[in-house]
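Archive entry. Fields below.
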Amino acid sequence: MMIKVEAYVREDKFEDVKAALNAIGVNGLTVSQVMGCGIQRGYKEIVRGMQVDMQMQPKIKFEIVVSSEEWEVKTIEAIEKAAYTGEPGDGKIFTYEIRHAQKIRTKETGYDAIQATE
Amino acid sequence: MMIKVEAYVREDKFEDVKAALNAIGVNGLTVSQVMGCGIQRGYKEIVRGMQVDMQMQPKIKFEIVVSSEEWEVKTIEAIEKAAYTGEPGDGKIFTYEIRHAQKIRTKETGYDAIQATE
Amino acid sequence: MMIKVEAYVREDKFEDVKAALNAIGVNGLTVSQVMGCGIQRGYKEIVRGMQVDMQMQPKIKFEIVVSSEEWEVKTIEAIEKAAYTGEPGDGKIFTYEIRHAQKIRTKETGYDAIQATE
Ligand SMILES: Nc1ncnc2c1ncn2[C@@H]1O[C@H](COP(=O)(O)OP(=O)(O)OP(=O)(O)O)[C@@H](O)[C@H]1O
Ligand SMILES: Nc1ncnc2c1ncn2[C@@H]1O[C@H](COP(=O)(O)OP(=O)(O)OP(=O)(O)O)[C@@H](O)[C@H]1O
Ligand SMILES: Nc1ncnc2c1ncn2[C@@H]1O[C@H](COP(=O)(O)OP(=O)(O)OP(=O)(O)O)[C@@H](O)[C@H]1O
Ligand SMILES: [Mg+2]
Ligand SMILES: [Mg+2]
Ligand SMILES: [Mg+2]
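PREDICTED_STRUCTURE:
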């Protein structure tokens, strides 16, 4: 099964997360800059009893397509460890199933498309 | 079932859509700037009988992961109402199933990862 | 079945890929700028025997939601042909299933939401 792991992490954890993914040997990844908020709505803690405006914070989104559930777990664990501070705002990881993968240069599909087969 | 709702809306509807999502009480969201076009290819109306170049227009992409089909519906309705003008270019909403969710700070997974449980 | 086709291609192939998608008649698309790397980790070839840092390269991400497996194939083929150079870094294509689609202006859902029905 091919799976995409998506993670939203702190901007200053970009290098650490990238290094952690490199260390486990992922075969590719994509990053982009996004803005977001979680349950604190961008504040330092949850503000109760009044509706506050959402403050968007800059985050880095990682996208990594992997080739098995085993790699899904490995990838999540690597991100989790590298992105952790213990303070609100450390981020979220989501995964979903990929139907089809294709490498444009070689026309390889599926498992082969996301492996280092050469 | 965990579901990601993705919406592409007008730039000048960013604040309205964010406020609508805040009002229904979503527990997190991510936004990014994208470029896109729909069936009019970036023009004011559909140009027939000749093939026109696609004109990319700036749009805002919202991503909201929710914890049930009920929340999927609520989220779609909130976006739809807030993003509507009635003119071409109002945008599109797509949803898909999420396999796994994880909160980095607490290591909570699944439903708990996207709820305000504290 | 509704399917999202996601492709990461070279920056200088943006116009070619867009024109190819226009030529087959897709009804909408979204693009964004991302950074990424594949199995060469951003280098010209695979560096063996030592762990090298990942060098992020700018890429263009295309997202196209289509309404059938037939269109999935057509869309992949169009991108593949337009994005190809034969050198490492040509890019990857991934697809996944979409649960629900909605056009904000008309409230059309599913198949109708992503068709030119007018
Ligand atoms: N439900 C969600 N849907 C989409 N994106 C989300 C969601 N929750 C969080 N995010 C993204 O993850 C980023 C980090 O979220 P954050 O770590 O603050 O989550 P949280 O649930 O508030 O956890 P914590 O309590 O540890 O702060 C957000 O800025 C946003 O980009
Ligand atoms: N099929 C699609 N795949 C990917 N993104 C799409 C698709 N259709 C629309 N979008 C995104 O949604 C944005 C808004 O699209 P738009 O509202 O113009 O859709 P439309 O089908 O042309 O509807 P309308 O007729 O109301 O203009 C686009 O700029 C693009 O970013
Ligand atoms: N497994 C992956 N997960 C997420 N994104 C990826 C993955 N593999 C590649 N990408 C994205 O696609 C872009 C292009 O990748 P690239 O074409 O170099 O892949 P490759 O497997 O190294 O193929 P080639 O050997 O032809 O270079 C990367 O910069 C990255 O954005
Ligand atoms: Mg938070
Ligand atoms: Mg349109
Ligand atoms: Mg490569």
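CURATOR_NOTE: DSSP finds three helices and five strands in chain A.
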